[in-house]
Protein backbone atom coordinates (compact mmCIF):
# COMPACT_ATOMS: atom_id res chain seq x y z
CA UNK A 1 0.00 0.00 0.00
CA UNK A 2 1.51 3.39 -0.94
CA UNK A 3 2.31 5.80 1.86
CA UNK A 4 -0.27 8.55 2.36
CA UNK A 5 0.22 11.85 4.25
CA UNK A 6 -1.23 10.91 7.58
CA UNK A 7 -0.48 10.32 11.22
CA UNK A 8 3.20 9.92 12.16
CA UNK A 9 4.17 6.89 14.20
CA UNK A 10 5.91 7.89 17.42
CA UNK A 11 9.63 7.62 16.76
CA UNK A 12 11.37 4.70 18.45
CA UNK A 13 15.16 5.08 18.37
CA UNK A 14 16.66 1.68 19.18
CA UNK A 15 20.12 0.55 20.24
CA UNK A 16 20.56 -3.16 19.61
CA UNK A 17 22.80 -5.82 21.07
CA UNK A 18 24.33 -8.61 18.99
CA UNK A 19 22.33 -10.72 16.56
CA UNK A 20 20.65 -14.04 17.39
CA UNK A 21 18.89 -16.78 15.45
CA UNK A 22 15.53 -16.16 13.80
CA UNK A 23 12.62 -18.23 15.08
CA UNK A 24 9.94 -17.28 12.56
CA UNK A 25 9.51 -15.47 9.27
CA UNK A 26 6.69 -13.19 8.06
CA UNK A 27 4.40 -14.41 5.24
CA UNK A 28 6.22 -14.44 1.89
CA UNK A 29 6.46 -10.95 0.43
CA UNK A 30 5.10 -9.21 3.52
CA UNK A 31 8.42 -7.64 4.53
CA UNK A 32 10.89 -6.11 2.09
CA UNK A 33 13.74 -5.93 4.59
CA UNK A 34 12.83 -7.60 7.90
CA UNK A 35 15.03 -6.77 10.86
CA UNK A 36 17.26 -9.61 12.09
CA UNK A 37 16.86 -11.41 15.38
CA UNK A 38 18.56 -9.96 18.43
CA UNK A 39 20.42 -11.47 21.35
CA UNK A 40 18.70 -12.27 24.61
CA UNK A 41 19.46 -9.74 27.38
CA UNK A 42 19.53 -11.59 30.73
CA UNK A 43 19.83 -8.54 33.02
CA UNK A 44 16.68 -7.17 34.63
CA UNK A 45 15.86 -3.80 33.02
CA UNK A 46 15.55 -0.69 35.16
CA UNK A 47 11.88 -0.18 34.22
CA UNK A 48 10.90 -3.63 35.54
CA UNK A 49 12.90 -2.97 38.70
CA UNK A 50 11.33 0.46 39.13
CA UNK A 51 7.69 -0.51 38.58
CA UNK A 52 8.07 -4.05 40.02
CA UNK A 53 4.75 -5.33 38.59
CA UNK A 54 5.43 -8.79 40.01
CA UNK A 55 4.47 -7.43 43.44
CA UNK A 56 0.87 -7.30 42.30
CA UNK A 57 0.76 -10.69 40.55
CA UNK A 58 -0.65 -12.47 43.65
CA UNK A 59 -3.70 -10.22 43.14
CA UNK A 60 -3.82 -9.90 39.34
CA UNK A 61 -1.84 -11.02 36.30
CA UNK A 62 -4.23 -9.63 33.71
CA UNK A 63 -6.10 -12.87 33.05
CA UNK A 64 -9.25 -12.55 30.95
CA UNK A 65 -8.35 -9.15 29.49
CA UNK A 66 -7.79 -8.72 25.75
CA UNK A 67 -5.30 -5.96 24.89
CA UNK A 68 -5.16 -4.80 21.27
CA UNK A 69 -1.75 -3.71 19.96
CA UNK A 70 -2.52 -1.48 16.96
CA UNK A 71 0.97 -1.28 15.53
CA UNK A 72 3.40 -2.99 13.16
CA UNK A 73 2.19 -6.47 14.08
CA UNK A 74 3.38 -8.89 16.78
CA UNK A 75 5.75 -11.81 16.34
CA UNK A 76 3.75 -14.56 18.01
CA UNK A 77 6.78 -16.87 17.93
CA UNK A 78 8.88 -14.81 20.32
CA UNK A 79 9.75 -17.21 23.18
CA UNK A 80 8.17 -14.95 25.79
CA UNK A 81 5.00 -14.49 23.70
CA UNK A 82 4.68 -18.02 22.30
CA UNK A 83 2.57 -19.57 25.08
CA UNK A 84 -0.61 -20.96 23.48
CA UNK A 85 -3.47 -18.49 23.71
CA UNK A 86 -1.31 -15.47 24.52
CA UNK A 87 -1.24 -13.88 21.04
CA UNK A 88 -4.30 -14.19 18.82
CA UNK A 89 -4.09 -14.40 15.05
CA UNK A 90 -5.30 -10.82 14.65
CA UNK A 91 -5.50 -9.06 11.31
CA UNK A 92 -3.32 -7.11 8.91
CA UNK A 93 -4.86 -3.84 7.70
CA UNK A 94 -1.66 -2.59 6.10
CA UNK A 95 -1.90 -5.02 3.18
CA UNK A 96 -5.23 -5.66 1.53
CA UNK A 97 -6.30 -9.26 1.88
CA UNK A 98 -6.61 -11.71 4.74
CA UNK A 99 -3.13 -11.74 6.28
CA UNK A 100 -2.93 -12.17 10.05
CA UNK A 101 -1.53 -9.54 12.38
CA UNK A 102 0.70 -12.02 14.22
CA UNK A 103 3.93 -11.17 12.42
CA UNK A 104 6.24 -8.18 12.55
CA UNK A 105 8.84 -6.78 10.18
CA UNK A 106 10.45 -4.18 12.45
CA UNK A 107 9.93 -5.27 16.12
CA UNK A 108 7.98 -2.13 17.09
CA UNK A 109 4.70 -3.92 17.78
CA UNK A 110 6.49 -6.96 19.21
CA UNK A 111 8.31 -4.70 21.67
CA UNK A 112 5.04 -3.06 22.72
CA UNK A 113 3.33 -6.44 23.16
CA UNK A 114 6.26 -7.75 25.20
CA UNK A 115 6.15 -4.84 27.63
CA UNK A 116 2.45 -5.51 28.09
CA UNK A 117 2.36 -9.29 28.44
CA UNK A 118 5.69 -11.11 27.96
CA UNK A 119 5.98 -14.21 30.13
CA UNK A 120 8.81 -14.43 32.66
CA UNK A 121 11.56 -16.77 31.48
CA UNK A 122 14.38 -18.50 33.40
CA UNK A 123 17.58 -16.49 33.31
CA UNK A 124 15.87 -13.48 31.68
CA UNK A 125 15.16 -10.28 33.62
CA UNK A 126 12.68 -8.86 31.08
CA UNK A 127 8.97 -9.62 31.48
CA UNK A 128 5.66 -7.95 30.80
CA UNK A 129 3.46 -6.05 33.22
CA UNK A 130 0.45 -8.38 32.82
CA UNK A 131 1.75 -11.79 31.68
CA UNK A 132 -1.67 -13.46 31.66
CA UNK A 133 -3.31 -10.82 29.43
CA UNK A 134 -4.15 -11.80 25.86
CA UNK A 135 -2.73 -9.83 22.91
CA UNK A 136 -4.75 -8.97 19.80
CA UNK A 137 -2.23 -7.95 17.07
CA UNK A 138 -3.65 -5.36 14.66
CA UNK A 139 -1.12 -4.56 11.92
CA UNK A 140 -1.52 -1.05 10.50
CA UNK A 141 2.08 -0.19 9.49
CA UNK A 142 5.22 -1.76 8.06
CA UNK A 143 7.80 0.44 9.81
CA UNK A 144 7.91 3.84 11.52
CA UNK A 145 11.29 5.09 10.22
CA UNK A 146 12.49 5.13 6.61
CA UNK A 147 15.91 4.17 5.29
CA UNK A 148 17.10 7.79 5.69
CA UNK A 149 15.84 8.10 9.27
CA UNK A 150 12.73 10.06 8.29
CA UNK A 151 9.36 9.48 10.03
CA UNK A 152 6.99 7.54 7.83
CA UNK A 153 3.27 8.20 7.67
CA UNK A 154 0.30 5.88 7.87
CA UNK A 155 -3.00 6.13 6.05
CA UNK A 156 -5.43 7.48 8.68
CA UNK A 157 -8.17 5.25 7.30
CA UNK A 158 -6.01 2.19 7.98
CA UNK A 159 -5.48 3.35 11.56
CA UNK A 160 -9.23 3.92 11.98
CA UNK A 161 -10.03 0.48 10.55
CA UNK A 162 -7.63 -1.14 12.99
CA UNK A 163 -9.12 0.66 15.99
CA UNK A 164 -12.67 -0.30 15.01
CA UNK A 165 -11.64 -3.92 14.46
CA UNK A 166 -10.04 -4.03 17.93
CA UNK A 167 -13.20 -2.69 19.52
CA UNK A 168 -15.38 -5.18 17.64
CA UNK A 169 -13.15 -8.05 18.82
CA UNK A 170 -13.89 -7.09 22.43
CA UNK A 171 -10.56 -5.54 23.36
CA UNK A 172 -10.84 -3.99 26.82
CA UNK A 173 -7.57 -2.05 26.34
CA UNK A 174 -6.32 -0.63 23.02
CA UNK A 175 -2.68 0.45 22.84
CA UNK A 176 -1.85 3.12 20.24
CA UNK A 177 1.91 3.70 20.23
CA UNK A 178 1.60 6.39 17.57
CA UNK A 179 1.17 10.15 17.54
CA UNK A 180 0.76 12.98 15.06
CA UNK A 181 0.06 16.70 15.00
CA UNK A 182 -3.00 16.49 12.73
CA UNK A 183 -6.58 15.79 13.81
CA UNK A 184 -8.10 13.26 11.40
CA UNK A 185 -11.87 12.84 11.62
CA UNK A 186 -11.74 9.15 10.72
CA UNK A 187 -9.36 8.38 13.59
CA UNK A 188 -11.32 10.62 15.98
CA UNK A 189 -14.55 8.79 15.08
CA UNK A 190 -12.88 5.38 15.43
CA UNK A 191 -11.61 6.28 18.88
CA UNK A 192 -15.10 7.43 19.88
CA UNK A 193 -16.42 4.12 18.53
CA UNK A 194 -14.02 2.16 20.75
CA UNK A 195 -14.68 4.34 23.81
CA UNK A 196 -18.43 3.82 23.40
CA UNK A 197 -17.77 0.06 23.61
CA UNK A 198 -16.00 0.43 26.96
CA UNK A 199 -12.46 0.06 25.62
CA UNK A 200 -9.75 2.00 27.44
CA UNK A 201 -7.66 3.63 24.71
CA UNK A 202 -4.03 4.35 25.67
CA UNK A 203 -1.92 6.50 23.33
CA UNK A 204 1.68 7.74 23.22
CA UNK A 205 2.10 11.49 23.70
CA UNK A 206 4.75 11.75 20.95
CA UNK A 207 8.47 12.52 20.81
CA UNK A 208 8.84 15.82 18.91
CA UNK A 209 9.11 18.31 21.80
CA UNK A 210 11.95 20.75 21.14
CA UNK A 211 11.54 22.97 24.19
CA UNK A 212 9.45 23.17 27.33
CA UNK A 213 7.62 26.38 26.42
CA UNK A 214 5.44 25.18 23.56
CA UNK A 215 2.49 22.83 23.73
CA UNK A 216 2.45 20.78 20.56
CA UNK A 217 -0.74 19.07 19.40
CA UNK A 218 -0.85 15.29 19.71
CA UNK A 219 -3.45 12.94 18.32
CA UNK A 220 -4.94 10.50 19.20
CA UNK A 221 -3.68 11.27 22.75
CA UNK A 222 -5.76 14.47 22.87
CA UNK A 223 -9.06 12.81 21.92
CA UNK A 224 -11.80 12.42 24.55
CA UNK A 225 -11.59 9.16 26.43
CA UNK A 226 -7.93 8.56 25.57
CA UNK A 227 -5.24 8.19 28.23
CA UNK A 228 -2.16 10.08 26.97
CA UNK A 229 1.23 8.80 28.15
CA UNK A 230 4.54 10.66 28.33
CA UNK A 231 7.98 9.14 29.02
CA UNK A 232 10.51 9.46 31.86
CA UNK A 233 14.09 8.24 32.20
CA UNK A 234 15.81 6.25 34.94
CA UNK A 235 16.17 9.44 37.06
CA UNK A 236 12.47 10.27 36.82
CA UNK A 237 13.13 13.23 34.52
CA UNK A 238 11.09 13.85 31.38
CA UNK A 239 12.64 11.99 28.47
CA UNK A 240 14.09 14.35 25.91
CA UNK A 241 11.44 14.91 23.23
CA UNK A 242 8.50 13.59 25.26
CA UNK A 243 5.74 16.02 24.37
CA UNK A 244 4.19 18.44 26.83
CA UNK A 245 0.50 19.25 26.88
CA UNK A 246 -2.83 18.87 28.62
CA UNK A 247 -3.23 15.50 26.91
CA UNK A 248 -0.45 13.99 29.08
CA UNK A 249 -2.39 12.09 31.73
CA UNK A 250 0.40 9.83 33.02
CA UNK A 251 4.06 9.07 32.47
CA UNK A 252 5.94 5.77 32.43
CA UNK A 253 9.47 4.54 31.70
CA UNK A 254 10.39 5.33 28.09
CA UNK A 255 14.13 5.99 27.93
CA UNK A 256 16.51 3.06 27.42
CA UNK A 257 13.82 0.52 28.28
CA UNK A 258 14.20 -3.08 27.21
CA UNK A 259 11.67 -4.54 24.77
CA UNK A 260 11.17 -7.85 22.98
CA UNK A 261 12.13 -8.04 19.30
CA UNK A 262 10.87 -10.03 16.34
CA UNK A 263 12.44 -13.44 15.80
CA UNK A 264 13.56 -13.57 19.44
CA UNK A 265 15.79 -11.54 21.71
CA UNK A 266 15.59 -8.05 23.15
CA UNK A 267 16.60 -4.47 22.33
CA UNK A 268 16.96 -1.22 24.23
CA UNK A 269 14.65 1.49 22.94
CA UNK A 270 13.54 5.09 23.57
CA UNK A 271 10.19 6.72 23.01
CA UNK A 272 6.71 7.35 24.33
CA UNK A 273 5.81 4.39 22.11
CA UNK A 274 7.34 2.22 24.81
CA UNK A 275 5.95 4.18 27.75
CA UNK A 276 2.34 3.64 26.61
CA UNK A 277 2.42 -0.19 26.96
CA UNK A 278 3.48 0.06 30.61
CA UNK A 279 0.19 1.90 31.18
CA UNK A 280 -1.76 -0.52 28.95
CA UNK A 281 -0.36 -3.48 30.91
CA UNK A 282 -1.32 -1.83 34.18
CA UNK A 283 -4.82 -1.18 32.81
CA UNK A 284 -5.06 -4.91 32.02
CA UNK A 285 -4.14 -5.74 35.63
CA UNK A 286 -6.86 -3.40 36.90
CA UNK A 287 -9.53 -4.63 34.48
CA UNK A 288 -8.79 -8.20 35.54
CA UNK A 289 -8.87 -7.46 39.27
CA UNK A 290 -11.82 -5.04 39.09
CA UNK A 291 -13.99 -6.32 36.21
CA UNK A 292 -16.95 -4.25 37.32
CA UNK A 293 -15.16 -0.96 36.63
CA UNK A 294 -15.88 0.87 33.39
CA UNK A 295 -13.09 2.21 31.17
CA UNK A 296 -13.41 5.78 32.55
CA UNK A 297 -13.30 4.40 36.09
CA UNK A 298 -10.16 2.42 35.27
CA UNK A 299 -8.58 5.57 33.84
CA UNK A 300 -9.44 7.52 37.01
CA UNK A 301 -7.96 4.73 39.12
CA UNK A 302 -4.72 4.79 37.17
CA UNK A 303 -4.32 8.54 37.59
CA UNK A 304 -5.45 8.57 41.23
CA UNK A 305 -2.85 5.96 42.23
CA UNK A 306 0.08 7.35 40.22
CA UNK A 307 3.32 8.05 42.06
CA UNK A 308 4.35 11.72 42.38
CA UNK A 309 6.53 13.02 39.56
CA UNK A 310 8.91 15.98 39.30
CA UNK A 311 6.38 18.30 37.73
CA UNK A 312 3.86 17.98 40.55
CA UNK A 313 0.23 16.94 40.26
CA UNK A 314 -1.38 17.97 36.97
CA UNK A 315 1.86 18.99 35.29
CA UNK A 316 1.58 19.27 31.48
CA UNK A 317 4.82 17.28 31.22
CA UNK A 318 4.07 14.56 33.79
CA UNK A 319 0.28 14.53 34.17
CA UNK A 320 -0.86 12.84 37.37
CA UNK A 321 2.55 11.19 37.85
CA UNK A 322 4.24 7.85 37.17
CA UNK A 323 1.98 4.84 36.70
CA UNK A 324 2.07 2.48 39.71
CA UNK A 325 0.85 -1.08 38.95
CA UNK A 326 0.76 -2.18 42.59
CA UNK A 327 -1.30 0.72 43.89
CA UNK A 328 -3.54 0.75 40.82
CA UNK A 329 -4.71 -2.77 41.68
CA UNK A 330 -4.53 -2.87 45.47
CA UNK A 331 -5.65 0.56 46.62
CA UNK A 332 -9.18 0.36 47.99
CA UNK A 333 -10.64 3.35 46.21
CA UNK A 334 -14.33 4.13 46.68
CA UNK A 335 -15.85 6.63 44.29
CA UNK A 336 -19.17 6.72 46.17
CA UNK A 337 -20.04 9.64 48.44
CA UNK A 338 -19.22 9.05 52.10
CA UNK A 339 -22.13 7.68 54.11
CA UNK A 340 -23.74 9.61 56.98
CA UNK A 341 -22.31 8.84 60.39
CA UNK A 342 -24.77 7.66 63.08
CA UNK A 343 -25.65 10.10 65.85
CA UNK A 344 -23.31 9.98 68.81
CA UNK A 345 -24.98 8.56 71.93
CA UNK A 346 -22.67 8.62 74.98
CA UNK A 347 -22.69 5.65 77.35
CA UNK A 348 -24.47 6.25 80.72
CA UNK A 349 -22.04 7.09 83.54
CA UNK A 350 -20.96 4.32 85.95
CA UNK A 351 -22.11 5.87 89.19
CA UNK A 352 -20.55 3.23 91.43
CA UNK A 353 -17.18 3.82 89.80
CA UNK A 354 -17.55 7.60 90.13
CA UNK A 355 -18.41 7.20 93.86
CA UNK A 356 -15.35 5.00 94.39
CA UNK A 357 -13.12 7.58 92.71
CA UNK A 358 -14.62 10.38 94.82
CA UNK A 359 -14.11 8.37 98.02
CA UNK A 360 -10.49 7.70 97.11
CA UNK A 361 -9.91 11.38 96.43
CA UNK A 362 -11.44 12.35 99.81
CA UNK A 363 -9.27 9.79 101.62
CA UNK A 364 -6.16 11.08 99.87
CA UNK A 365 -7.03 14.68 100.80
CA UNK A 366 -7.63 13.80 104.45
CA UNK A 367 -4.37 11.87 104.62
CA UNK A 368 -2.50 14.81 103.13
CA UNK A 369 -3.81 17.28 105.68
CA UNK A 370 -3.26 14.82 108.55
CA UNK A 371 0.37 14.47 107.47
CA UNK A 372 0.76 18.28 107.41
CA UNK A 373 -0.73 18.54 110.94
CA UNK A 374 1.54 15.84 112.39
CA UNK A 375 4.59 17.46 110.85
CA UNK A 376 3.54 20.82 112.34
CA UNK A 377 3.13 19.32 115.85
CA UNK A 378 6.55 17.70 115.62
CA UNK A 379 8.15 21.02 114.59
CA UNK A 380 6.49 22.91 117.45
CA UNK A 381 7.57 20.25 119.96
CA UNK A 382 11.16 20.46 118.74
CA UNK A 383 11.12 24.25 119.05
CA UNK A 384 9.72 24.10 122.59
CA UNK A 385 12.33 21.52 123.61
CA UNK A 386 15.03 23.96 122.50
CA UNK A 387 13.61 27.12 124.16
CA UNK A 388 12.34 25.88 127.54
CA UNK A 389 15.77 25.04 129.09
CA UNK A 390 17.15 28.48 128.13
CA UNK A 391 14.14 30.22 129.66
CA UNK A 392 14.54 28.33 132.93
CA UNK A 393 18.27 29.25 133.18
CA UNK A 394 17.51 33.00 132.83
CA UNK A 395 14.50 32.85 135.16
CA UNK A 396 12.33 33.66 132.16
CA UNK A 397 14.06 37.07 131.85
CA UNK A 398 14.64 38.52 128.41
CA UNK A 399 18.20 38.28 127.11
CA UNK A 400 20.40 41.30 126.28
CA UNK A 401 22.47 41.99 123.23
CA UNK A 402 26.23 42.54 123.49
CA UNK A 403 27.21 46.23 124.03
CA UNK A 404 28.26 48.21 121.00
CA UNK A 405 31.85 49.62 121.06
CA UNK A 406 32.16 53.43 121.07
CA UNK A 407 35.64 53.43 119.53
CA UNK A 408 35.72 53.73 115.74
CA UNK A 409 37.24 50.87 113.91
CA UNK A 410 40.35 51.96 112.05
CA UNK A 411 41.04 50.13 108.85
CA UNK A 412 44.85 50.19 108.57
CA UNK A 413 46.27 49.81 105.05
CA UNK A 414 48.59 46.87 104.51
CA UNK A 415 52.31 47.32 104.55
CA UNK A 416 53.84 48.44 101.27
CA UNK A 417 55.24 45.65 99.21
CA UNK A 418 57.94 46.47 96.73
CA UNK A 419 57.96 44.25 93.73
CA UNK A 420 61.09 45.84 92.32
CA UNK A 421 64.19 45.93 94.57
CA UNK A 422 66.11 49.14 95.15
CA UNK A 423 69.56 49.58 93.66
UniProtKB/TrEMBL annotation:
One Pfam family named in its UniProt record: Peptidase_S8
Gene3D superfamilies according to UniProt: Peptidase S8/S53 domain
Signal peptide: 1-24
Keywords in alphabetical order: Cell membrane, Hydrolase, Membrane, Protease, Serine protease, Signal, Transmembrane, Transmembrane helix
Keyword Ion transport among record annotations: no
Domain annotation Peptidase S8/S53: ranges: 62-320
Any one GO biological process: proteolysis
Localization in the cell: Cell membrane
PROSITE patterns noted in UniProt: SUBTILASE, SUBTILASE_ASP, SUBTILASE_HIS, SUBTILASE_SER
Membrane-spanning segments: 369-388
Similarity comment text for this entry: Belongs to the peptidase S8 family.
Designated name of the protein: Peptidase S8/S53 subtilisin kexin sedolisin
Organism: Amycolatopsis decaplanina DSM 44594
Lineage per the UniProt record: Bacteria, Bacillati, Actinomycetota, Actinomycetes, Pseudonocardiales
